[in-house]
Amino acid sequence: MNLNGKSVWFDSGASFPIAGEVVEVTRNRISIKSLVNGKTFVFGIDETNRFGIRIPLPPEGVNDMITMSDLSEASILWNIKVRYDHRQFYTYIGSILVAVNPYYMYHDMYSIDYVRKYENALVLHAYPAHIFATASLAHSKMMSDKINQCVVISGESGGGKTQSTKLIMNYLAAVNPGKNKLITEQILEASPLLESFGNAKTVRNDNSSRFGKYIEIYYSQKSIVGAKLSDFLLEKSRIVTHSNDERNYHVFYELLEGFDTEEKRKYGLTTPEKYFYLNQGASMAITSKSDAHDFQSLLTAMKILNFTKVEQETIFKILAAILHLGNIYFSRTVDDPSHDLIQISSKTEIEWCSHLLTINEQGLLQKLTHKVTEARDERLLSPFNLEQALDSRDAIAKALYATLFSWLVSRINQIVRVNSSVDNSIAILDIFGFENFATNSFEQLCINYANEALQFHFNRHVFKLEQEEYAKEKLSWKKIDFADNTDCLDLIGKKPNGILQVLDDESNFPKATDQSFLHKCHRLHESNRLYGKPRLLKTTFSIRHYAGEVEYDVRGFLDKNRDLLRSDVIDLFSSSRNEILADMFRDIREVYESHRGFHFKTGRFITMKAKTPTVSAKFSDSLSNLIDTMTRCQPTFIRCIKPNNDKTPNKLELSVVLEQLRNTGMLETVRIRKLGFPRRYLFEQFAKRYRCLTSNPMDNSDPKEVTIHILNNLPTKFTSKYQIGITKVFMRESLEQHLEKERTQLLSEAASTIQRTIKGYIQRKNFEKQRQAVLILQRQYRRWIDRKK
Q1: Which one of the listed residues 435, 443, 452, 473 is annotated catalytic?
Q2: 7 included as an active-site residue
């Protein structure tokens, strides 16, 4: 066989085959030129196991990977690479969209012309893969099937999930703005507002969502009438600490860059590098982001969302107070050698905090330096040591920010709430991506647990339920194995011994420590293949997730999980002369009282009630409710892919992409979408929808007979594209697209015929009227002529 000029896969020493072309063949060797970097690799003539024939791809790659004849890992990876190099950042796996982040905003790809182009597309694959096509699919399914839709956007941090969410919302707003255009605009403006308060720069992503959000957009009579937003697990620790080359939440930097000199003086503010809560990462600015411009966008969003001047000022005062809190520092005193007594060495910051929050200055001073112990009818004050005072300061700062964030979400929901009946909804899930940093803590465990749950939901929908349905309907099918992550979910969250359950148990014991929690985890899970116990005496354990092994450091786990806000601190802020701030903390006080049966005024427990839920318990409940809600919707999946680890625009590293494809089971997904039958209809539904495609009406026939008759009349190339089950017909997506195209064309022609007939009728009627009028005029004119003669 002559190999000269042939397309091949070859082993370059990487962990995956590389695309190349044979450039020279001699008696003893074969030279292959790499299509990745242009280098030439030489192999011995007997090393045929190191290269193989490759089926060339079209110049811009394949739009839908289930149409590829070569379904190898290398071919799928190379197709994504080829498309990425040609600015085709989206690729289909059937109806699943793979979106690779270009780390650059190509505005021309998301213009109103593109909206109209994909809005009018007859079928999903009529044009190149695009996020607007996926949004159009969910929208049209909701309209035609009257079923609630859910767009599930997942992927690693840096994959572009937040941007994808905004693009889908922009599309939905453009195609169905609603009768009240203000409500649509308000829904759109909620995103940049929450992005300022909930996103931050991390080492992986310049605009990383540090909370999860689930947005439900409600429709009535094909128009947007309102929305509801649910948030999950704001990363509170970021408010007081962040790693090198990271930032706190965007809003702090935007505030300081956006305020003029007079406004800074009003709030006692200066530049970001002067604040301890902002300068720990030594990264004050982001190259791709203008904080000053984004602050103006934030003000515009607040205006459109009808935030009052008083509300805006309260928000800015709380943010400024948090920055002042971070600059409060303490020093040790030597008054009592037996105790680590401290004093505040920054009185100015205390004055600014109490002034901005309109609370008692001495009260704030006391909360920072003393602990209140309740005993019968009296409260005892115990002085903090230096470490306790710093913890108290940080706890107050975190409570202020978290409370403000919850109030913002609640306020937005008040503004965009539905005031009329609802027909259906489209929900969009944008949740934090899988994370694995140098040091991973409690937040990363919760985030990765959420991603495990989403991966399970994806597997369940694409693999498990799909193949169970085939077996139930007696289809001819060879089972495809997939990576089931149920065991990992059980390890983390299953009662009674899941890691989060153990953490909750330990959190209820006052004398429990992070170390006692770790020992209990080791004892219960040491034999679990997914659990890793360190060989050395370290404060860590590891879990083998679907996306790789992650090591977690348990230091601070218990405190973060308890997240208790002292009752005296709640009292202090509830007494603020700023009514908005006071109401925020009064609501918290009511929640604490309801759970703990605690009366704040007397300091007595008035009844025995359940303990305040821990952070992990609340998060697990929220996650469970979220999955239940999504299960009741028809899902559309978008898998976001990070192209490189250094956030460089238009650069795709094959090894980085391949790792994500392997971890998320993309190869198996392509196989089941190619070989399986993901589209299914009950016979009654199919007959009702596609009866128009047959010339024989078969009005009184059995729906199954009608279905078989319609399918038998299709071209022979579609024979392998469907199977008849017991109660349903199962089809591949390509067949459904063909049927939809034929049906749409037929209905369009029928509509044109009806329009033509009606227009002809109207024109004939008008012509007859005009003819009669002309005849009358002629008759009258003749009479007039005759009289004149």
Answers
A1: 435
A2: no
